[in-house]
Structure formats: C-alpha cells, structure tokens
Amino acid sequence: MDHPHKKPNEVEQLKSQLLLKVAWYCLFLHAMLILVFLFVEVELLALFNIFSVATWWFGIKLLRKDYLSLALRIFSLEVTAHSIVVCLLIGTDYGFQFYLWAASCLLLLDIQLKLKQAVSWCTAIIIMFAYTYIGFIPSPYQIAYHEYAPYIHFLNVVVCGIPMIYTIGLIREITINQRKELEILAAHDSLTHLFNRRYALGLIHRAQQSCVSQKTPICVVMADIDHFKRVNDRYGHELGDEVIFRVSGQLKRHLNDADIGVRWGGEEFLLVLPNCSLIETQQRIENIRQAVEAMSFQADDLCVTMSFGIALWHPTQSFESVLKYADVALYNSKHKGRNTLTIAPESALT
Ligand SMILES: Nc1nc2c(ncn2[C@@H]2O[C@H](COP(=O)(O)OP(=O)(O)OP(=O)(O)O)[C@@H](O)[C@H]2O)c(=O)[nH]1
C-alpha cells in the first residue's frame, strides 16, 4: 500500500524536483549561518543551526524517496521553530521573523493538507510573525556588531522573499499546465486524439459560418472502418484498438489545419473540410482510402479498409441534414461492397 505521504502524480514530481533545489539552498544557508552566529558570538544559535542543517538533510532524503508531503511539513516546522528561537534570543532587529512567511509558503505547497488546515496553520504562523514585534523585544543577548542589524534585516527579507515568489510562481505554473491539460482532455478522444463529438460541434458550427460568410464551399464526410467487428473477433480487442489508432493517424496526416477530424463513434469518423470543393474533397478522400488500404499490421493477413460518404454542405442546410446525407452516402458505399466512397446526391443541388 502507498504511504499516505507519498507523492501521487507528475505535477508532484515536478514540485518535488524544484523543492529539492530549494532544500539544498536552505541547507547551505543554514551552514553559512553557523559561521555567522559564531562570528557574532551567539553560540546557542550556531548550535541550533547545526540541528537545522541536519533537519534539511533529512528532508532532502525524504524528498528523494518521494515523501514530498512529509518533507514539506518538516521543512515548515523547522523554519517556524528556527525563526521563533532566533527572535526570542536576538529580537526582531535582524529580520529573522520573515522566515515565518517562508514557512507558510512551504505549508501551502503540501496538497495532502486540507485547505482549511493549511490556511489555519498559515494564519497561526502569520499571527506569530506579527506578535514577534510586540512580545519578542528587547533582545536578551548583547550581540557583537549590532550596527550591522539593518543589513542583515535587509538580507533576510530578500532571502525570504525568494521562496514566496517561487511558491506563487510554482502554483501559477501548475495551474496553467493543469488547465491546458484539462482543455485538451475535454476536447479530444483519448484513443485517437481526434476531437470528440461534443467539442467538435462548436468548431463545426464556427467553420460553417465562416465558409458561408466567405462564400466558400465546405464538405462533410462520414467514414467507417469496414467489417471492424471481424477484426475484433478474429484478432482481439487490443489489435482492434491499434487499428482505430493507426487509421486515425492516417486521417490526421491527410487533414489540414483548418479541417476538423472527429471520432464520431467506435470505428466511425466525421471529417469536416472547410474551403474545400466537392471535387477536391473527393480527391483527398480517395487518397485517404488508398493510404488506409495500404497499411500493414503485425497480423500479415489483416487488411483494413474504409468506406466513406461525402456531402457538400449547402448554406441553407442544417448540420443534421448534411450529416444525414453523408450517412446515407456512407451506407451506399457499404452496400456497394465497401472500400469505396460515395457522394450524396443532394450535394448536386445548388
Ligand atoms: N477494439 C475496439 N472495438 C470497438 C471500439 N468501439 C467500437 N468497437 C467495435 O466496433 C464494432 C463495430 O461493428 P459494426 O457496427 O457491426 O460494424 P462493422 O463490423 O465495422 O461492419 P460494417 O460497418 O458494416 O463494415 C463492434 O464490434 C464494436 O464492439 C473500440 O474503441 N475499440
């Protein structure tokens, strides 16, 4: 069984890789801080930073083993505890309280944490940040080189700002990518990557309107793989799927950018060819027919052919009517013995 903290998908993998870089950056930062605190003679904090380096090291190990959520919680806890301890010891002059903002960002990246929980924790951390200005001064420590406090403060704000910008940027990137993926999934058939029926209807409508306004022809083609049931029965469903996939590949190869290729049903396809006359359509479909017939498969004796029904879409016709004409023409192709194309007689109307 999967560990509840184990990452589930590709997005999380990307997040994990990027976080690994941040974790290394933090590990080196804490290692540097050991020297800084020794230099300013706050040995207790130097000691705490050794503990921090060990925590980041452990977190990196967790990330490498794909325990992203657990690693994020440990990082966030470390950053929170560290900021509070530092502020308790040396006050807020040095700006270490800003690491509490970075801790919140880390928590927000943990998608296994429910939004309510994440927001509650982050709110608590930010309240703690605000409280450091009231309750954590004056500093009990007399620090050497106190005059450098504003510069360290400045540096800390910059260093903390990076994870914040980074987190928001990462969330933005993930959201954009996921939206693109969803759009593609919603528009396409998963086996053939042709448009699915529901999405294609809008495209077809727009293409037809554009052809009507430009007074250019548009053709509708129904295409169906011949005796496909036999392919499934004889060679199995898996090879049947491969046939559908390869046939779709041939269709796509012969379509232009403006054309619309749709998986209309199981082994049935709809092609809409804007700005294409009946003669041109006939020629292009004949090329597809020949290309499909010429395909070879692992099973040597398997020969795949397709039948087509072509209809010219007159501006006054509805989509339903032209589809019916193309469908009847396809039926006629099947009736004629298959592996052929038929033009709907209604196409001759002007
Ligand atoms: N492998 C596979 N088979 C499918 C898929 N979708 C539909 N089918 C099968 O396609 C077959 C279609 O058969 P029919 O409609 O009888 O038509 P046909 O055998 O192609 O005969 P004709 O159209 O008359 O040449 C059915 O057996 C369906 O189960 C699919 O996605 N994958």
- Output the strand order for the largest sheet: 1-3-4-2-5-6
Overall tally of structural domains: 2
**Judging from the principal axes of the Cα atoms, what is the shape?**
elongated
How far from one another are the termini?
A: 67 Å
By DSSP, the count of extended strands is 6
% residues in beta strands = 5-15%
Ligand inventory reads:
guanosine-5'-triphosphate
Helix/strand order, N-terminal first: HHHHHHEHEHHEEHEHE
Number of helices: 11
Helix content: 55-70%
**Would you identify the regions where 5 or more consecutive residues have pLDDT less than 50?**
1-8
* Overall mean confidence score, pLDDT: 90
Class from helix and strand fractions: alpha/beta
Q: Biggest sheet, open or closed, and with what strands and sense? A: 6 strands, mixed
Q: State Rg.
A: 33 Å
Catalytic activity: 2 GTP = 3',3'-c-di-GMP + 2 diphosphate
GO cellular component, one term: plasma membrane
Enzyme class: transferase
Organism: Pseudoalteromonas amylolytica
Description:
- The protein has 350 residues and is α/β, with parallel strands linked by helices.
- The protein folds into 2 domains: 10-187, no CATH class; 195-348, Reverse transcriptase/Diguanylate cyclase domain (Alpha-Beta Plaits, 2-Layer Sandwich).
- It has helices at residues 10-39, 43-64, 68-90, 99-108, 115-135, 149-187, 197-214, 228-235, 237-254, 278-293, 319-335, and strands spanning 195-196, 218-225, 260-263, 268-274, 306-312, 341-343.
- Helix 1 (10-39) packs antiparallel against helix 2.
- The protein is elongated, with a radius of gyration of 33 Å.
- The structure holds guanosine-5'-triphosphate.
- The site of guanosine-5'-triphosphate (GTP) has 15 residues, from strand 2, helix 8 and helix 9.
